[in-house]
Design a protein that fits this description.
By secondary structure, the protein is α+β, with helices and mostly antiparallel strands. 36% of the residues lie in helices and 35% in strands. The protein is elongated.
Length: 180
């Protein structure tokens, strides 16, 4: 009877240990049960059902910065690889920018196809492609403030349901020769 009691107590202790989750500050954990959204866990100690609940995503709520195009690895002296977007007049324009953003709806952000950072990156690329495609190369080179405002408004409109875009700053606009 003593050995059986020891096994039961050990199993109950293990179950209690795995059922207690510690969610860090400035994070929200998205929990799924049976591969469907169950609940979002805020910071602190939280109880979960072992073997049924799983963490789908850990969403960071702190302000984040996206450099576009993505910066090379630290310590590397290579230039970031940038995409050149075709302008209305056939020229190509390359843009380097910084986007400050933070998640306001963790559930919506967790269910973005490539995650929150990938979604912001995809929005930046699509918006740049659309904006530059409607401008001439010279207009894109000379109207940086209008370009900043249009890009910020477009990204904010698209990501506004789950993210708050603090600012979009274009640091460099480069012209490339027209492709032949």
């Amino acid at each position: 009877m003593g050995f059986f009691t020891f096994i039961v107590v050990a199993l109950l202790s293990l179950a209690a240990w795995t059922a207690l989750w510690q969610v860090p500050e400035d994070e929200v954990w998205i929990v799924e049960r049976h591969r469907r959204f169950h609940r979002a866990l805020a910071a602190g100690r939280r109880l979960a059902v072992p073997l049924f609940d799983r963490v789908k995503a850990k969403v960071d709520l702190t302000p984040q910065m996206l450099l576009w195009p993505p910066a090379p690895p630290e310590g590397s002296n290579e230039q970031p690889a940038a995409d050149a977007f075709d302008a209305q007049d056939g020229g190509a324009v390359e843009v380097r920018l910084r986007i400050l953003w933070r998640v306001i709806d963790p559930v919506g952000a967790a269910y973005q196809p490539r995650g929150p950072r990938g979604a912001i990156d995809d929005l930046a690329a699509a918006t740049l492609r659309r904006l530059i495609g409607a401008m001439t190369q010279e207009t894109a080179m000379t109207s940086r403030s209008a370009f900043d405002q249009a890009l910020s408004a477009a990204i904010t409109e698209q990501a506004g349901r789950w993210a708050e875009v603090g600012s979009v700053r274009i640091s460099e606009v480069l012209a490339r020769p027209a492709r032949t």
